[in-house]
Write a structure and sequence with these properties.
Layout (H helix, E strand, L loop, with lengths): L2 E7 L6 H11 L4 E8 L5 H11 L3 E6 L4 H11 L4 E4 L5 E2 L3 H11 L5 E10 L2 E6 L7 E3 L1 H9 L10 E4 H6 L12 H12 L3 E12 L11 E2 L1 H20 L1 H24 L2 E2 L4
């Protein structure tokens, strides 16, 4: 089996059917779809079980509510594909992307990770397109991409990446348990620092759907979870900056950007945690 697609689901009854049907239309041949129900209280599990009974390549994992990180990790542990792809339950792929993933993977067997362009949409309208033309259709070392990522010249989203499963497992690349904001950025940074060879295409393959009730929308309040996201990145990156002089300026820039962004959200928030 070539590709395992992992979707964490929490109270996703409003949109999970649309996401699954999109993947079925694109074709699940040589793929498995792992749906992880994270203790939903709506009809999500009922819908997932319907698809599991109807399609042999769809599998459901049911767990108590433990958060998106644990749900993704459970899916990764159960995956059997040579490659792994994480998709959120309300996001989608552009037409023909699954077939394109398969062709690209086959054409770059030595790459531990593959990255693609993506865009964000709100209400069906494109808000921003994230592409890096300078690296289009190239195999690149992870260190080059890491520098560009830290310098905000290379954009990547958890939904615009495919990874070799053995690369993730052997290096213990799991999502940090209990973290609900920024867990994907830390996961991606750990991979970028470790990967030897990666492939990038500017083809827009993934669509990040911005919802008004999303965890990341609004910032009307500033929470400890948001602050923890910044400190988690800081605690991971500062020791690297101390050891590696070549990476220091890139890390300092990235952390300064993170600090200023968090400070702005904090100052603009209607509700603040006084301890922060």
């Amino acid at each position: 089996m070539l590709l395992s697609i992992i979707i964490p689901c929490y109270n996703s009854g409003r949109f999970i059917r649309r996401s699954i049907e999109m993947l079925l239309r694109q074709g699940l041949s040589d793929c498995e779809l792992i749906l992880v129900n994270d203790g939903s209280t709506d009809d999500t599990l009922f819908l997932l079980r319907e698809y599991e009974r109807a399609y042999p390549d769809i599998y459901v994992i049911d767990q108590e509510n433990q958060g998106v990180s644990v749900a993704r990790n459970k899916g990764l542990e159960a995956a059997r594909g040579e490659y792994v792809y994480f998709l959120d339950s309300d996001d989608t792929l552009t037409d023909g992307t699954l077939a394109y993933f398969k062709r690209t993977i086959a054409g770059h067997p030595d790459c531990q990770a593959l990255f693609w362009g993506y865009e964000s949409r709100r209400g069906g309208v494109v808000e921003k397109r994230y592409i890096s033309p300078r690296w289009d259709n190239q195999e690149i070392t992870g260190m080059v991409l890491t520098r560009d990522f830290l310098a905000k010249r290379f954009c990547v989203h958890i939904g615009s990446c495919v990874y070799k499963r053995t690369f993730l497992i052997e290096n213990q690349f799991y999502f940090p348990s209990g973290v609900t904001i920024g867990e994907d950025v830390l996961f991606l940074l750990r991979i970028l620092f470790q990967v030897d060879k990666a492939y990038y295409s500017k083809r827009v393959s993934f669509i990040y759907q911005i919802r008004d009730d999303s965890t990341m929308r609004g910032y009307k309040s500033y929470s400890r979870a948001q602050y923890r996201s910044h400190t988690m990145l800081r605690d991971f990156l500062l020791p690297i900056a101390k050891r590696d002089k070549k990476m220091r300026k890139y890390i300092n820039f990235f952390l300064l950007f993170s600090y200023i962004s968090n400070l702005r959200y904090y100052l603009c928030a209607d509700f603040k945690d006084e301890e922060i």
